[in-house]
């Protein structure tokens, strides 16, 4: 089978991979003094629009509910979220941000923003558009909606029934 792939594609794939690792490392470093990980911030971001149950939150941020549970335990222990058992279904918990959670989320957003390069020669809008095209061009067997640092489409967009989360790699690292 021959490929019609642009010869620069392999180099681009590698650059995307390197860029992702570098951005993740910078974000992890920026969040460390707050005692947070990217995974914890993603969970907090998912709750920014209001309370959800754990299954809804997992779907919103596109992770497995079991993986999310470990992160929520740590966020609850730190006082950033509350989990209240639902009266209509005792197996479900309503998860919501506390005032401390809102404050730490704002601090995390500032730290993440400060971790990005401040280079006026980078066309962020163009880069974002091109990366979105790349993500959307991935084969259907891969999740096409994984944009973990984009604001969650809170309660407005649903994945097809039965679609699974991506299980963000590193979700439970560093204890948060």
TrEMBL record:
Protein name, per record: HTH marR-type domain-containing protein
Domain HTH marR-type: 8-143
Stored InterPro entries: HTH_MarR-typ, MarR/SlyA-like, Tscrpt_reg_MarR-type_CS, WH-like_DNA-bd_sf, WH_DNA-bd_sf
The keyword Glycoprotein appears for this protein: no
Start and end residues of each stretch annotated as Disordered: 145-176
Alphabetized SUPFAM superfamilies for the sequence: Winged helix' DNA-binding domain
Keywords for the protein's UniProt record, in alphabetical order: DNA-binding, Transcription, Transcription regulation
Residues annotated as transmembrane: none
